[in-house]
């Protein structure tokens, strides 16, 4: 048994020596790679600085264009909003109701055709007004969404302009 104990001791000793030697070998490889990296010349960043100036000029011109477009959109929104006039149609419909009540009270032989035609025209005009208001509201909503989209595009241009690695 003494031989087995000695053999296992020697094997353990050889393992420790091998591990220490491997560590020194790896340390030497690391140092040689580090020396190779340190001996390379520094990177010339002046072309990147020139490119950065070009990108800043492009971003500035894009922002100027975007701001002009934004002002144009705001003007368009204002024009559409000016066309929208709040109209309360409840009075029109109340009057139509009153006229119908009066028609119902007329004696039977009365000629109601001209009155009914006028009433129908008045009612159609009321519906047209309501449709126009709905259409203008949709136009304003569309222009507002376009404005939001332009704001998003402006932010993307700003972000892209701040990234020196973007093209």
Helix and strand arrangement:
Blueprint (H helix, E strand, L loop, with lengths): L1 H38 L6 H38 L6 H16 L7 H50 L5
In brief, what are we looking at here?
The chain has 167 residues and is an all-alpha fold.
Describe this structure in words.
The protein is an all-alpha fold and 167 residues long. The chain is built from four helices and no strands. The radius of gyration is 42 Å and the shape is elongated.
Taking the alpha carbons of the first and last residues, their distance comes to 75 Å
Helices, by number, come to 4
Largest sheet: none
Order of helices and strands: HHHH
> Per the principal axes of the C-alpha atoms, what is the gross shape?
elongated
Helix content: over 70%
Low-confidence stretches: none
Rg calculated over all Cα atoms: 42 Å
Q: How many DSSP-defined strands?
A: 0
User: Based on helices, strands and strand pairing, what is the structural class?
Assistant: mainly alpha
* Amount of beta strand: under 5%
Mean pLDDT: 82
Features:
167 residues, mainly alpha, elongated
